[in-house]
Amino acid sequence: SYELTQPPSVSVSPGQTARITCSGDALPKQYAYWYQQKPGQAPVLVIYKDSERPSGIPERFSGSSSGTTVTLTISGVQAEDEADYYCQSADSSDTYYVFGTGTKVTVL
Amino acid sequence: EVQLVQSGAEVKKPGESLKISCKGSGYSFTTYWIGWVRQMPGKGLEWMGIIYPGDSDTRYSPSFQGQVTISADKSISTAYLQWSSLKASDTAMYYCARRGYRANDGLDYWGQGTLVTVSS
After folding, report:
1. How large is the C-alpha radius of gyration of chain B?
2. How far is it, in rounded angstroms, from Cα B61 to Cα A99?
3. Could you give the CA distance from residue A41 to residue A33 in angstroms, rounded to a whole number?
4. How far is CA B85 from CA B8, B51, B90, B99, in A?
5. What is the pLDDT of residues B48-85, one digit of tens each?
6. Interface mutation vs chain B, best among A22, A29, A45, most B CBs within 10 Å
7. Distance (Å, rounded) from C-alpha A51 to C-alpha B69?
8. In this complex, do A49 and B104 lie within 8 Å of one another by their Cβ atoms?
9. Is A43 on the interface with B (CB under 8 A)?
10. Is B42 on the interface with A (CB under 8 A)?
C-alpha cells in the first residue's frame, strides 16, 4: 500500500526555522496537507493544497512542493509549536487517503 | 459554529461488537464528507475511511476494508464507526473529521476523539 515518509524528529531552537519533509511517489500528482497534533488533543489542519494556510493559522507556517517531496516550514519557531506533525495525501488513483509517519518537533 | 461531537469512551471485551458515533452541527451535514482516523497508543494517525452522508457513498482504506463498517444517519446528522467482533489490537483513539467542502480543502474540523479499550 502507499506510504508517506517523514523524519521521526526535528529539533530547533526558538526563533529558528524548522523544516519537515514528507516523501511519496504520488506527491507530484496529489496535493498534500499538514496537521499539527499536541499531546492529548485532536489534530489541527495547518496547511492544505500543498501551500495554502487555513484562516487562524499563523503566517510562520508555510508549505511547498517539489517532485516527490513536500515540505512544511515553520519560520521563527515558538515554544507553542512543539508538537507532532503529520502530512497527508492520496494514492495515485485518488482511491484512499494516507497519513505520513509523523514528525516530532522539539523546541530546545 | 461547526462542531463534531463524538460519543464517550468505551471499554469492551474481545469478540464484542461496538458502534461509536460522531454528531455534526453548525453546518449542512449532508454536503460534507466525514472521515475516520485511528491512533493507536503512542503511534501515528491512520486513515480508515470516509463517507458522504448525502448518499452514504463510502470509501475504505485497504488496511481497514472488511474490518470495520462506516455508516451515517443524515436525519440526525451522525456518522458511525462499528465493529462486529473487537480485538485487543483495536484499542486506540478514534477521531472523526470533516473534509472541507471542496475535495482539496483538507480535514478542517475534528471531533474530540473516542477512546476504545478492548481487554479481557
Report:
1. 14
2. 11
3. 18
4. 19, 21, 10, 28
5. 999 999 999 999 999 999 999 999 999 999 999 999 99
6. A45
7. 33
8. yes
9. yes
10. no
CB contact under 8 A, B47 and A43: no
Chain B: give the shortest CA distance to residue A18, in Å. 20
Closest listed residue to residue A30, CA positions, set A98, A101, A84:
A98
d(CA B91, CA B98): 23
Per-chain mean pLDDT for chain A: 96
Q: Is A3 on the interface with B (CB under 8 A)?
A: no
CB A105 within 8 A of CB A19: no
**Cα dihedral across residues B62, A69, B100, B2: positive or negative:** positive
Place of cell 515554544: A79
Q: Model confidence over A51-101: pLDDT tens digits?
A: 999 999 999 999 999 999 999 999 999 999 999 999 999 988 888 899 999
CA distances from B18 to A71, B93, B114 (A): 39, 14, 12
Nearest-CA distance from A83 to chain B in Å?
Answer: 12
